[in-house]
Amino acid sequence: MAIETELAAPCFLIAVPQLGDPNFSRGVVLMLEHGEEGSMGLVINRPSNLDMGTFCASQNMSFKGDTSRLIYHGGPVQTDRAFILHSSQHEGPETEKVLNGIRLSYSLESLRLLVDDPPDRMRIYLGYAGWGPDQLAEEITQGAWLVTPPTDRLVFGAGAEEIWEAALREMGIDPGQLMHSGAVH
User: Fold this and answer.
1) Domain range for 140
2) 164: part of which helix (H) or strand (E)?
3) Of 11, 65, 87, 174, most Cβ neighbours within 10 A?
């Protein structure tokens, strides 16, 4: 089994059990940007208690889909900012292709269009995970994260509580065999 350490976005960062930060415990981050100025991604497996109907109403919008779908915590940075991962063909002014037909939108205009005609595969994340220059590389060197190529199946196809274990199993790692000793910060 080869574990990749070369960082390139997009990729998954899978938190090891020893990672002491509660924001990332059993977390899987879809890293969207990585460069000399730092790294940015979304924790894809942290649903909040906030539902789409309530969230959209707070933005003076009406969600035209299942209003009980949950909003996700994307990370501890700028938790008042929304990021939308979706599989639609929508390409607003702030929409980027991520992988395999998945796009990231982060403008209010895109949010309005996507809640008015929601695609089947769409999740809204509040906040993001961010790292300063060289910070993420150092955390990986310390053993806090495993790095693997992302799959759209894990972004949308697995339940939030299943993503961490499924990502490890796709790497050929039995989650039960990971050691739970000493925190990595």
Assistant:
1) 11-177
2) helix 163-170
3) 11
Q: Please state, in angstroms and rounded to a whole number, the distance separating the CA atoms of residues 18 and 16.
A: 5
Q: Do 111 and 82 meet the contact criterion of CB atoms below 8 Å apart?
A: yes
Per-residue pLDDT of the chain (185 residues; tens, 9 = 90+): 334 446 789 999 999 998 888 999 999 999 999 998 999 999 999 999 999 999 999 999 999 999 999 999 999 999 999 999 999 887 877 899 998 889 999 999 999 999 999 998 999 999 999 999 999 999 999 999 999 999 888 998 778 899 999 999 999 999 888 765 444 44
What's 54's domain CATH number?
Answer: 3.40.1740.10
**Distance (Å, whole) CA 158 – CA 128:** 20
Give the total number of structural domains in the chain: 1
Tell me the pTM.
0.90
Query: Is the dihedral angle over the CA atoms 45, 74, 171, 99 positive or is it negative?
Result: positive
